[in-house]
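Quick log. Single chain, no ligands specified.
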Amino acid sequence: MNKPYCQHINDFKAIVDGDRTLHEWLQEQAKQYQLKYLLAHADDGVIWGEFRGENYNLVTSGDVFPELTNLRYETLQQCRAFGRDAEVMLWKVDQYPKARLIKDDAQTEYIPESQILWGTQVEKTENNFSLVSDGQQGLRHGVPLPKSSINFDSNRILDRPLRLSVRHYIDCDEETGLARIYLSRLVNLTTFKEIKL
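-> predicted structure:
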């Protein structure tokens, strides 16, 4: 069974020392591994991002919609920058950062999953981000997809077309034969009508 390449990344010390910002570090990772999207969880909310252009400039949902959470190292719990072939994950342990890279190729074996994301309607669109809300719950997040690519079915009240493509990697214990998911990574942000792993 071909497994993905997985390693810890230790060059984030510059973020802690203030030599580089979190944005700069993430853009460097995105450029090196051709990453497209960012999904971050912070103390004060969820942040989506997209890396754009040759320099992989990071544009976040907080940059586009001022009412949403901004990406800041101080409030960050974890973030994943991801694309078709790799994911870089950064998280904190006792306020100290840890990071890891998962990279695979066409020979890597995995189980694909398409996770349903919150969102039953688009409130507004700006700079190729859509502010999506979910029913009467008041849950909102700004996904880096234009409104034209998100097709809500107005006939279905609970229609949630946004999907997060995930790859799960399996490990088999040779002694017991027990198989388990030992590693997972994000791959793509898409919609139900055009799921792309």
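The radius of gyration is 18 Å.
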